[in-house]
Amino acid sequence: MKNIKFFLIASLFAFSSQTQAKISILNKTLKVNSFDQKKNKFTIKGNVQGFEDGTKVYINEQGEQGFIKIDSTVIKNNTFIINGIVNELELAFIEIGNTQEYIVPFVIEKGEIKVTYDKANPDNAKVIGTKNNDYLAVYNTESNKIQREIRDFQELNNEKMMNAQQSQDKQTIDDLMAEYQKINSKLVNQNIDLIKKNKDAYISLIIIEQLMNGETITFEEYKSYFEAFDSKLKNTKKGKEINQRIESLEKVAIGQIAPDFSAPNPEGKMISLKESLGKVTIIDFWAAWCGPCRQENPNFVALYNKYKNKGLQIIGVSLDRDAEAWKNAIAKDQLTWIQISNIKHWQDPIAQLYQVSSIPKTFILDSSGKIIAKDLRGAELDTKIAELLK
């Protein structure tokens, strides 16, 4: 039960902790000859309403810790112009002002890119003029209705969900999650339909990356969709990043031997997976700050007490960044099995090795270390453990 995803707007541009879109588009960062500059030039022409003359307009790239400003201009008479050189297709963001309140995503590509933005109606922002930005405009038009439905549902039910989690009201949680997933599935299906029809569109790369981050489709599905993309798309920087991620995910797919790892326990002793395997082993990625993880811990305590003498091992891998908070959570939740952490948050090397982009996340291994299942909860998990321990 991944309740943490309930609080994430299922938007194309809701970047995960591991998203690193690096954009090299400025004359000052690229060394190309004059012919290439002319050939690869882009111009952004903006028409905006509701902003004073002199308001700054930035082009941002997405870094590990947030936006990085890489170019700017100012608004004059409700317009702005930015010129640059593009080396290859990339996703970037126009920011109007300096508050990150008025953000417009767009695709950097050669040609004239036209932006319209009304401060009073930000949902009607539009970016058109080049092939991939036209694709993006179509996507936004089609998806806005569903995304508004998702936002309305979250705003209406967030407090109800938080109260249910605090009181461990499983029925309410399950009901809300089922209703949310029903709405979210509309967007997922729309996204899948789009990438099937647009195998040469850069937007398809961004969509498939978000589907991977949200774990809304299977590994086999997004691998199949990606392999069907146009070769030029797969050979972009983003395409190569996704291909590398697919190769990494394949190493932790069901049926593979779980990669070995080691990290310190709360006392500082190094613990490895290889030396800690039980007859059945659960690798549990969690953190003290993760509400759904903490909510699930009592179930793990009961499961461990039930099966530990029959060969069940659990290895908790924490994505905390505060060692004391981690240790306090272990004590408070009475977690008596192996606990390890590098105290590196989302930069934890074990999480990166296992391609963990959301928590809670679990892998179930047999006695040989082979991955048998993932993300089982409740009765389904108990049944699988009992079956494997026979």
UniProtKB/TrEMBL annotation:
GO CC terms of this entry: cell envelope
Alphabetized UniProt keyword annotations: Coiled coil, Cytochrome c-type biogenesis, Disulfide bond, Redox-active center, Signal
Listed InterPro entries: AhpC/TSA, DUF4369, Thioredoxin-like_sf, Thioredoxin_CS, Thioredoxin_domain, Thioredoxin_ResA/DsbE_sf
Signal peptide: 1-21
Location (main, coarse): other
Domain Thioredoxin stretches: 252-390
Residues forming coiled coils: 139-193
PROSITE patterns for the chain: THIOREDOXIN_1 (PS00194), THIOREDOXIN_2 (PS51352)
Protein location: Cell envelope
Record has Disulfide bond as a keyword: yes
Any one of the GO BP annotations: cytochrome complex assembly
Record bears the keyword Signal: yes
GO molecular function, one term: antioxidant activity
This protein's name: AhpC/TSA family protein
Natural source organism: Paenimyroides tangerinum
Lineage per the UniProt record: Bacteria, Pseudomonadati, Bacteroidota, Flavobacteriia, Flavobacteriales
